[in-house]
Write a structure and sequence with these properties.
The complex is a heterodimer of chains A (270) and B (238).
Chain A: E1 2-10, E2 16-25, E3 30-34, H1 41-48, E4 56-61, E5 64-65, H2 71-76, E6 78-82, H3 93-103, H4 108-121, H5 138-149, E7 156-160, H6 168-185, E8 188-193, H7 196-202, E9 205-210, E10 214-219, H8 221-226, H9 231-237, E11 247-251, E12 254-258, E13 264-267
Parallel strand pairs in A: 3-8, 3-9, 6-7, 7-8
Antiparallel strand pairs in A: 1-2, 1-4, 4-5, 9-10, 11-12, 12-13
Chain B: H1 2-12, H2 23-55, H3 59-71, H4 74-85, H5 90-113, H6 117-126, H7 130-160, H8 164-167, H9 173-182, H10 185-212, H11 216-228
Helix pairs in contact in B: 1-10, 2-5, 2-7, 3-5, 4-5, 5-7, 6-7, 7-10, 9-10
The chains are: A alpha/beta (270), B mainly alpha (238).
């Protein structure tokens, strides 16, 4: 379980990135931090592996304050997937995936064998193992990034806009892959995005952040749709624009779902 | 033109290829002095440059210091050290080290800085220690530019190491100073040609090394970039 208790972050120049945040993230669930840029969502994510230290409050993992843990040891136990994959350009795919296990003392041979298995897990051909990142497509690079994040078999997987830089078709593929993986592996996933549709698709819990690093609402997707906490949330999820206020009409004897603007969104399954 | 012929004739004269003060001996001394200077300057400049490039701090100070060092006339510094320390190799080596530090420093910090900060950030977030980031990420990726700094320093050292003969009986510069004194222009020119040739050969060797140290994965990108995008502007290392 990951817990944020009254967490704040103020930079020396006075900028407040995060203010008074309380979140509880249950194990084996996916929590999506969503908000526009400057809402502090990435800062919050990076507090979990101490890439950013809070100036107020505590971040706890299974009851232990992360501030008391050596940052390098902490990070080696947490998977991290970032936008643009962040792969090391001078190492092959398999060596990239094996990087952290080798650092923690696993033999190179064992680490590479495990890395090849992970390529299977994320749906990549083993023939790509000896290629360099620059020889892969953007979507393939992101899959390698996910494999690397899973390399030490962490309980926690942090994902910072991992699918932000790929085209919509590949993004939707990767999203489905993540759902499949999460169904198999059951990690505690913390996912940052600015795309509310992605958040609704992936999240068990959605945390909507607003400017100034405050939480507007933290709840399940259904609860957020049913009862937006304020006008900001309603606008952000699109309820105001009618995108998500659907109603039913009869067409030729079938029930069609229509959105607030009158555009058909689908058919009600019989 | 006649003088050049005489210069080459002097180089080819078998009498100059054996005995004390022969061309091979002077060439060896010249290389030894240059290598010593390069090594000392690298020990001083490369760690400092790496630290600046890694932390991104102290760049202004480094630019100021190396700019200052660059402005010092080596002959003047050499005379000063000579008067202070006396005849021998110590003074020329010190003067040459001062000459070599700016390009090495610039090469090191430019090389380390050139590494994409997102790559470094990802390495850190994975749990690499700072020294592992320096050795395993920034050094291999920044090496071509760093070697460029060594290359430019080595050529400057070899050219200027002729001044060692001003205070010591060492190196190819001896022919130049001796020829000047005895008005033996063939010897003077012959010595100069040897220095130029040595500088060019060493420059060529480092150019090759610079190519070899480009990591394979980066080379793969670069060939593709060459086709699709205009070349990136490179950091100056001279």
């Amino acid at each position: 379980m990951i817990e944020f208790r009254g967490v704040s972050k103020q930079y020396p120049d006075g900028t407040v990135a995060v203010e008074g945040v309380d979140i509880v993230i249950e194990p084996h669930t996916t929590t999506v931090l969503v908000g526009s840029s400057g809402s502090g969502k990435t800062t919050l994510l990076r507090m979990i592996n101490r890439m950013v230290d809070p100036t107020g409050g505590q971040v706890l993992i299974d009851g232990t304050d992360v501030a008391t843990v050596d940052p390098v040891r902490l990070r080696r136990g947490i998977g991290y997937v970032m936008q643009n994959s962040g792969l090391l350009p001078h190492r092959t795919v398999v060596d990239n995936v094996a990087t952290v296990p080798v650092l923690t003392g696993v033999s190179r041979k064992q680490a590479r064998a495990r890395a090849l298995e992970l390529l299977d897990t994320v749906g990549l051909e083993r023939s790509l193992a000896d290629k360099y990142p620059s020889q892969l497509s953007g979507g393939q690079q992101q899959r390698v990034g996910v494999a690397r994040g899973l390399a030490v078999d962490p309980n926690i997987l942090l994902m910072d806009e991992p699918f932000g830089a790929v085209d919509p078709i590949v993004r939707s593929e990767l999203q489905q892959e993540l759902l499949r993986l999460q169904g198999e592996l059951g990690k505690t996933v913390v996912f940052v995005t600015h795309d509310i549709d992605e958040a609704f698709l992936l999240g068990d819990q959605i945390v909507i952040m607003q400017q100034g690093g405050r939480i507007s609402q933290a709840a399940s997707p259904a609860e957020i749709l049913a009862a937006p906490a304020d006008a900001f949330v309603a606008d952000f999820v699109g309820a105001e624009r009618g995108k998500r206020s659907l109603h039913l009409t009869e067409v030729d004897g079938r029930t069609v779902v229509v959105d607030g603007d009158g555009r058909p969104a689908g058919v009600l399954a019989p | 033109m006649n003088l050049f012929v005489e210069g080459f004739a002097w180089i080819l004269d078998p009498a100059n290829w054996s005995g004390p003060g022969s061309i091979p001996e002077r060439l060896g001394q010249h290389l030894a002095v240059s290598a010593t200077v390069l090594l000392i300057a690298m020990v001083i400049a490369l760690p400092v440059g790496a630290l600046i490039g890694h932390t991104g701090r102290g760049r202004e100070a480094a630019v100021m210091v190396s700019g200052g060092l660059r402005a010092l006339p080596t002959l003047g510094v050499l005379t000063l050290f000579g008067l202070w320390i006396g005849i021998g190799l110590t003074a020329p080596i010190l003067a040459l080290v001062i000459l070599a530090i700016p390009p090495l420093l610039a090469g090191a910090y430019a090389g380390f800085e050139s590494v994409d900060r997102r790559t470094v950030d990802a390495a850190r977030a994975m749990g690499m220690r700072e020294l592992q980031i320096v050795g395993g990420v920034e050094l291999p990726l920044g090496l071509p530019i760093l070697v460029g700094g060594i290359r430019s320093a080595s050529v400057q050292i070899i050219a200027t190491a002729t001044l060692a003969a001003y205070l010591a009986d060492e190196g190819l510069g001896r022919y130049i100073f001796q020829g000047l004194k005895t008005r033996d222009y063939a010897e003077m020119l012959g010595g100069s040609i040897l220095v130029i040739a040595l500088a060019l050969v060493v420059d060529g060797c480092f150019a090759l090394v610079q190519r070899i140290v480009v990591p394979a994965g980066v080379r793969a990108t670069r060939t593709r970039e060459l086709r699709s995008r205009p070349a990136r502007s490179r950091a100056a290392t001279g």
